[in-house]
Design a protein that fits this description.
By secondary structure, the chain is α+β, with helices and mostly antiparallel strands. The longest helix has 30 residues, at about 1-30. It has helices spanning about 1-30, 165-170, 215-220, and strands at about 35-45, 50-65, 65-75, 75-85, 90-95, 100-105, 110-120, 125-135, 145-155, 195-200, 205-210. Strands 4-3-2-1-9-8-7-6-5 form a nine-stranded antiparallel sheet. A two-stranded antiparallel sheet has the order 10-11.
Length: about 220
């Protein structure tokens, strides 16, 4: 019994050291995302249609004590978002140049929100995907359906929000490794044999329809936005 207790304590000590090392690594990676991120934030509805677009600033400020303070600024209004620290990053997980935030349930709307972040140099893309319950009432078969997507194109080099007009004015004068957000032709091969499924809401529940083939007109869209 004494031997087993000693082994248990040793395993516990190893687990604590591993957790501390993980927290330290996460914090050092998280700190690389600090800065004043100025961007264009575009909201799309569940059909992929643009709903609204606004320029704003997301400030991630490192403060003494291994903490980070987040402040959101839109139309001249500063909105405190929160503070984070070592071992206290909430549902933020870093991996390389990327980060995942969530999923989490928003208090006011009840939406389930998940954010994906990918940084490249002084630029990054934040994509927030939000889902809503399929039905307003409580049903056992109720699931989550896509509600909206917010795509944030941001830079932290003091050049301001990377608007489409600003990039067009540069006349393709971009560095080899420099991020470019607005392209005349999408960088992906959209013309392909796309398959999948579509889920829609009807009066008596959810209906899932297989998609064996999509219209060529959709395949050959040039915007890719």
């Amino acid at each position: 019994f004494v031997g087993e207790a000693g082994a248990f304590r040793r395993r516990g000590a190893v687990a604590l050291r591993s957790a501390a090392a993980f927290d330290a690594t996460q914090w050092s990676t998280y700190a690389t995302h600090s800065g004043r991120w100025e961007g264009v934030w575009t909201t799309y509805d569940e059909y992929g249609s643009e709903h609204s677009s606004v320029c704003g600033t997301w400030l991630v400020e490192l403060v003494p004590g291994d903490r980070a303070r987040h402040t959101l600024s839109v139309n001249g209004n500063d909105i405190p978002v929160g503070e984070y620290g070592v071992g206290k990053l909430g549902k933020q997980v870093c991996a390389g140049a990327g980060m995942v935030v969530g999923p989490s349930v928003l208090k006011r709307s009840g939406l389930v929100s998940t954010e994906l972040v990918l940084r490249h140099g002084a630029a990054r893309v934040r994509c927030t995907v939000q889902h809503a319950p399929a039905f307003a009432d409580s049903r056992e078969e109720a699931g989550l359906l896509l509600y909206r997507v917010v795509v944030c194109r941001e830079r932290c080099d003091g050049t301001g929000p990377p608007t489409r007009e600003k990039e067009e004015a540069r006349l393709n004068n971009f560095g080899v490794d420099e991020a470019r957000f607005w392209r005349g032709v999408p960088p992906y091969k959209w013309a392909a044999d796309w398959r999948g499924r579509s889920t829609s809401v009807v009066d008596n529940g959810l209906v899932t329809t297989p998609l064996d083939h999509l219209d060529d007109e959709w395949h050959l869209m040039r915007t890719g936005e």
